[in-house]
Specification:
single chain; about 120 residues; alpha+beta; Nuclear Transport Factor 2, Chain: A; 6-stranded mixed sheet; 3 helices; 6 strands; about 25% helix; globular
Length: about 120
Amino acid sequence: MSDYEAIEKTVFDYFDGYKAKDRTRLERAFAVDIANLMGYWKNPKGEKELFSRPMRQVIDTWTDPGHTPLELGEGRMLSVNIFSSDGATVVFDFGGRFLDAFQLVKMEGRWRIVNKFFVDH
């Protein structure tokens, strides 16, 4: 499998894992112990607000039985930049709802997301 294909698989483990509330796929996509999520979203007042949390907490929320995943369209890779043998960036359309920018590292031969920054469409 090429690095591009492995990165694409990692990103879709995140996307499909989110939709299915599948902790195994989400934890396969992220370097959970060090990964972070940050981004701008609209708060209940409709104002843009910067949001940041450790990925472990985010995955706990996403996989909670009471959490309802967002209704999403198709996920699309918009750009991939493999800038070294163990570093890459990806811009991803999160089902028409968010744009995600990922930083990935190759750890023990596998690509993992270490940072996710998102903006509300």
